[in-house]
Amino acid sequence: MSFPQPKPEVPQLPQNLLRTIDCQQGAVRAVRFNADGNYLLSCGSDKSLKLWSVSRGTLLKTYSGHGYEVLDADGSYDNSQLCSCSSDKTVILWDVATGQVTRKLRGHAGKVNCVQFNEEATVILSGSIDGTVRCWDTRSRKFDPIQILDEAQDGVSSLKVSEHELLTGSVDGRVRRYDLRMGQLHVDFINSPITCVCFSADGQCTLTSSLDSTVRLLDKSTGEMLGEYTGHKMKGYKLDCCLSSKDTHVLSCSEDGHVYCWDLVEGSLMLKLPVGKAVVQSLSFHPSETRLLTAMEGRVQVWGAEPEETEEEVVVVQQEKA
Amino acid sequence: MASDSDSDGDFVTFGTPLEPLEEDEPLRKPVPLYEQTVKDEKGRYQRFHGAFTGGFSAGYFNTVGTKEGWTPATFVSSRQQKAGRQNARPEDFMDEEDLGDHGIAPRQITTTADFASGRKDVIRDKARAITSLSAPIPGDTVLEDLVAPARSSMGVELLRKMGWKDGQGVGPRVKRRLCKQRADSATRAFGSASPPNGSSESQDEEDGEFVPENVTFAPKDVTPIDFTPKVDLHGLGYRGLNPLAALRGGPGAGHINLFTMDSDRTNSLFGEDRKGQRRRGGVAGQGFGVGAMEDDDEDIYHRDIMSNYDTVLGGEEPGNGLYGWTAPQQYNRKKKDHSKDAAYLGKILEGFTLASDKLETKTIFPPPNLPRDFRPVHYFRPVVDLSSVSPMVAQALQTSRGHMAQEEPSKGGRHQLDSAQRRELLGEATLQGPSSVFDLLKVEDRERLSSLRRPSSDTSSGPRQPTPGEARAAVVAAGVAAAAARASAQKALSSRFAPHAEQQQQEALSVWSGPTAQAQTGQTFKPFERTPHKQARYDLYIDQLKQGDRDALELSLDPTMTEWERGRERDEFVRAALLYKPSSSSLSCRFTRGKQDDGVEADTVEVTRDQENDVDDKQAAVKMKMFGKLTRDTFEWHPDNLLCKRFNIPDPYPGSGFVGMPKVKRDKFSVFNFLTVSESPTASASPAPQGVKPSEPGKRSRWDVSGQAGDKERKEKDPVSEFLSVARIEASGSGPEASTTDGPTTDPTVEPDTEQKEEEEEEESRPSMDLFKAIFASSSDEKSSSSSEGESEEEEEKEEGVRSKAGTGPQISNQLNVNTTQPAPPVSTTPSQHPDILFKTPSGPAAAPPPRDQEMEEEEFGPRLPPPSSTLTAERRPSPTPSAKDDKHKKKCKEKHKAKKHGKHKKDKKVRPGKTT
User: Fold this and answer.
1) How many C-beta neighbours within 10 Å does residue B241 have?
2) Which residues of B60-84 are buried (b: 16+ CB within 10 A; e: fewer)?
3) Which of B349, B403, B523, B625 has the fewest C-beta atoms under 10 angstroms from its C-beta?
4) What is the pLDDT of residue B610?
């Protein structure tokens, strides 16, 4: 081409269905990529946590040990450990390879909504419906939390950890950011129950979705609103939202069976991804590539920018007897 | 020496084993010291002669005698036996000890030199050296060494026979590629130790030409790892000063490099430089003068020159710096390697290599520099709009801040105002007609109160309408009128301090001399606790105030103090007395989380020091999408030290004694503790079924945030005015409206209406029941329900009165703490019931929920949730909790209905206040 391109290439969106995984573990409550995006974790309502290969869609391991449905999971940076939380009020630390329970952490008074490792997997942070965030030590043998953050006045629905910060979203309509380095707690009032919070990849912004069917992009340091994304429907369910890997787009689940994808800067709806008829329960964006996981009912779907050469419509995986 | 076979019998044993201990054997006496002797196997005492060389005994029992005694032997000539005399071997002079296991010439089966490994026999070498020294011609054995045949061990011979050559490794021959890789790894691992031709060869091959496929190569030789144990206490790789180098003298020796990098550099320093130089014997160098016989004195004084030091980071130029960046390839490569090695200051230890890629270091940012005038403690003062406040109040606020800061580090701000001041603050007319408790409350509180009151008005709408509360309210109103008069007088005199102080004294007196205060003995505040004397004087002052002493202040002050001090203390006392009035109603700070153990009879509860700003402002800001300053609160928060450690972050508050938010003790006894008791079941009530009870208080869902009746009203009104009317409107008007908006929003999509109705019926009339109890229970009932036992009956009655006022409506004054001195006549009808029990199994007039459901839920959910704080309830709209929300996820599941109920029920438990049991 002789002319210089007028615009940089439009970032691609994960609009092609690559694969559907029938997880066979009841409703999938949450689906998460691991740290490098090669594997995915699906949290089932049949008390099991499953590890899958994203590229092949095969089941690698089933982790069973929870007493009730698994609500969230996270993988450590070195892929050696998993943590998951459940309605049975426990947080479990798993060994990936053996599938054994390394540690079962009890202490929450209600079901645990969200769980995260910190950057070095030395602390597990779990947020519960009892309004507390508990910081569990994975290094010592102590089974008591290091610290209990009880500032939330209602259940903690979502939680994210960065290098030195902890972002929690609570049903009391507040986003709390605990800055460990500064020793400060910043509370942003949203006035609607928070369903999901995220850090942006550059660490300058926070993304919050709330039950007023709005996703808001807030400046982390000042709390000012940088963007507001609407159009989807999020009124009663705790649904996820996320940013794309390059921070170019904002994605959110919706109760109308779509995943909505907005341009981060312009706020315009770029893509309305039809996932199915039911509520899109959870989603997770690949840490580096244009790849998206969605969970609806008992299925996990993998979406990519361009269709794969080997087009397999549905991979029904024969599952081992749980 | 030690045999390494597995069986136990082959162990070498030293000494005599202890006799095995018997079970029931009496303790034997220890052997006395003089009997502790060591004997050899012949029974001779061993005296440890030559203990340091192994120990042996000499002579006959360490004597020079014999068995026969000291008898000189007769001389026997050996002249005839000369011919038969043979060479004596060393063994001839050894006894059996020397030939034993631990002797100097042990007799046992060993590997002969032929079969021994390449390691030299140290003892033999030493012996050889000694003999060579003592030989008639010193250095005799040198020749012997030179001409000694090169003997190789049997293993080497065998390997040679099998085709092995020196310098090769042992093992099957390998193809070229593998061989190359091995060679690379070998050179990397052992550096210069690998045979030099190997590396060059492999390089040649790399560049190289075609090699046929069937050619195989021997594997590279492996340098054995040296397992010399480290016996000194030096650091790894430390070599210390080489005494030879230090004493060798000459100009090069002036600089001693402790960190020699590698061997060739050492060679270049000490070997090659000195090759041509004549080596002098004797001692020379720095510090030693020049002898008369020596002719060169060029370097007596030590001069260290800069060329001995590196001036460039990284390695020196390879070669002699002849090549620049256009250097041939081998120089470049060498340079690269060299620079890599030299980047590490010091010698690379044997067996170690430099890492090829660097460890990623975490960037650690220092905390920002504090401004010079930064004070580490920040008090969050209430935002008082000075324009809307009378100047007197503003002044009072400011003075109280300035003066009381040292006695009371935490200020509740507006909560410390008394009701008259508060009325000023609210800009309200001084008591025209009945005013209301609601004036004091924030909007949420008011809302909750109104929702509390509505059922009561429902229940009391019948024949009980003229309640005794009315009578009490009248009494209260009279007291309020007096207070209001005082307040207005105070306002008139506000500019001058002295009358103001006088006024305050009067006020304090009137407050403290009341019967309410009299009853309150135990739980007075101790504002001057840090200075006991002052506190004692303050106590005296309070005591005298209680007795109604007019000059209480003057009596209680210390006459020995200076006038200025007394004046100051007087001021402080009066202020403190006013601020710490009996049951001074600090409103929202009393609402705390119900985390405390209810059974504990503590007078105070812990409240976070920094309170959140007004939620109304925030809501308005959110509505206007003005996020930022308005919606953000920043608090001090102390992370746990261990947490910081785990996050690799320095503790921001090193040495702080607590974690979390700074906490402050607040009085537990407050009207509003009790208000929350009766309020909580109301709050937990679910929305009223539509059409069933239109007057039921509208419970807004948490999920729907805007566009509700309450919000609409809030928009219309000025937040600091006409509370009364609003409360009335809310009581009657907004109920149905809210409930209609409510039903769909709780679960807009999937919830069928019938289900909702069902569960709402389950809970609908609990509040009225509880309120009923709260209002009409006798004081003895109160005691059973309130956890505070140190509380006097009178106060309880007072609280009760307030509660009933809160229930009965707006006809009472806002002076609830000071003037409600009239005890309420107990109007009890219901049997005393624990709120909890009552909550679980409501026996109220309305339909009770099916108990089966409750039990089931209890089973499934285990222990109940900890009750949340009451500040929480202040801004929380009763609504489904996240549990309900999450349960909605099981959309497909059939037991959704049940799950929904869990949510509701859990939420009910949550909202239960913590301060009561």
Assistant:
1) 10
2) ebeeeeeeeeeeeeeeeeeeeeeee
3) B349
4) 63
Three-state DSSP at B852 gives helix
Which of B368, B330, B320, B342 lies closest to B260 in space, CA to CA?
B342
| Residue B883: both structure tokens together | 């549990």
Here the tokens at position A322 are 């749980």
The structure tokens listed for B568 are: 């100051």
Contact B615 A218 (CB under 8 A): no
CA distance A149 to chain B (A): 7
Quote the crossing angle between the two packed helices B563-579 and B532-546, to the nearest 10°.
60
CA distances from B700 to A124, B763, B777 (A): 35, 15, 29
Question: What 3-state DSSP class applies to A209?
Answer: strand
The enclosing H or E element of A251 equals: strand A249-253
Is residue B915 packed enough to be buried (19+ CB in 10 Å), middle (13-18) or exposed (0-12)?
buried
Which residues lie below 8 Å from residue A294, measured CB to CB, with a gap of 6+? A31, A253, A259, A273, A275, A280, A282, A283, A300, A301, A303
- How high is the pLDDT of residue B399? 58
B363: tokens are: 């960037």
B636/A184 touch (CB, cutoff 8 Å), yes or no:
yes
Chain A environment of B608 (Cβ under 8 Å): 151
Q: Which residue of A has its CA nearest to B615?
A: A189
Q: How confident is the model at residue B95 (pLDDT cuts 50, 70, 90)?
A: confident
Residue type (1 letter), B566: R
In this predicted structure, which of A162-176, A250-264, B323-337, B373-387 has the lowest mean pLDDT?
B323-337
Q: Tell me how long chain A is.
A: 322
The two three-digit tokens of residue A284, written as one number: 């997770």
- Which residues are B174's β-sheet partners? B217
Q: Give the 3-state secondary structure of residue A191.
A: coil
Contact A103, A93 (CB under 8 A): yes
List residues bridging with B733 in a β-sheet: none
Q: Which residues of B touch A173 (CB under 8 A)?
A: 705
The rounded distance, in Å, linking the Cα atoms of B349 and B346 is: 9
d(CA B669, CA B794): 13
| Cβ of residue B156 closer than 8 Å to a chain A Cβ | no
Flag the least confident range among A260-264, B235-239, B791-795.
B791-795
CA distance linking residue B422 with residue B814, whole number of Å:
10
Sign of the alpha-carbon dihedral angle for B56, B60, B61, B65: negative
CA pair distance B612, B591, nearest whole angstrom:
13
Reported as half-sphere exposure (CB side, CA atoms, 13 A), residue B841 has a value of 5
The CA-atom distances, in angstroms, between B539 and each of A3, A37, B552, B561, B794 are 90, 69, 11, 18, 22
Whether the pLDDT of residue B546 is over 60: the answer is: yes
Q: What is the pLDDT of residues B711-730, one digit of tens each?
A: 444 434 444 344 444 444 44
For the record, the structure tokens of B413 come out as 């701000």
Evaluate whether B666 touches B607 at the Cβ level (below 8 Å).
yes
Shortest CA gap A186–chain B (Å) = 4
Average pLDDT over residues B11-23: 75
Least Cα separation, residue B750 to chain A (angstroms): 10
Helix segments in B704-819, DSSP class H: 709-716, 723-732, 734-746, 753-763, 766-776, 779-785, 793-808
Decide: B756 and B747 in contact? Cβ < 8 Å: yes
Tell me which range, B156-165, B197-206, B464-473, B580-589, is most confidently predicted by mean pLDDT.
B156-165
